[in-house]
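Hi C.,

You asked whether I'd gotten around to modeling the 297-residue construct. I have! Everything is below, sequence then structure, no commentary in between.
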Amino acid sequence: MNLKDLYYFEALKDLSSYTAVAKKFGISQPSVSYAIKRLEESLNCQLVQHDPSHRTFKLTPQGDILYRHLERILPELRATRKAIDRSLAHYVTVGFPPIIVHYLLRAIQAKSNSLDFLPHIRPIRGGSLELLDMLFTGELDASLIGHIAPLDAPNLCSHTLFHKQLDVVLSKNHPLAGEDFLAFEDLLDESFILLDENFVHLKAFEQLNDRYQNQADVFFKSDDVIVIKELLKKEVGISLLADMALEPNDKDLVAIPLAPKDRVMFTISSAHLKSSPLTADIQALFDWLKEAYDTDN
């Protein structure tokens, strides 16, 4: 069985067009037809309900079975290829949400010893949801993931590093800046500035807002926490962030806990596919980060 034929079959199911598949892979339309024919001969069954004009497309029950299995098999094969390529390049890729990147840099400045693992790690920045997708598609060897719900995937291995709570972050000059804690219902008229759809912060906001009939509004979304903090300093709005997002030079901002009834826990976990065990360098990174956090707290 030719591996490329399986990729052509997968694309044919997704695109429903022999012409589109041929264009995607830069081959002729007859080549796609021959690939499907080879698969059918190899499996001794019809996979596609044939139409000589190729104007309609539908899988047979056997074609559906093959496609369901390929949904699991081909991502693993792609991830394997990418992992092998990275191993030959002598580096590993690790996903870092921006807030954790800034925290890591601060921790490195404070504790510059025992960083032998760092030159072998290529960091990839992104929101936790975006990084999780990259992990599943094999773009990453491992990732740090921020989440408010358990990471539940049968092919994923994850370990909790530490917990934080999401705070209300606002300018020190904001009228609410002196409060000991804030209930979400007291914030319904505020303009929220939040990390975008690639981050769990937006999901946390949506959970809270849903309790109050979605009365609160998002004024602005960004994937850059620095931009968000600069807007907060200018008293443009308020945000929900883990307090580890604040740095020593953020003296114009304050983080106020949410009231107990509205509190949202933010978990930082390490994650990797079960099919791709952690290398010594990645494990050293995760151990170092957890130790640095435990020492600071």
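If it helps when you're writing up: The mean pLDDT is 86.

Thanks,
B.
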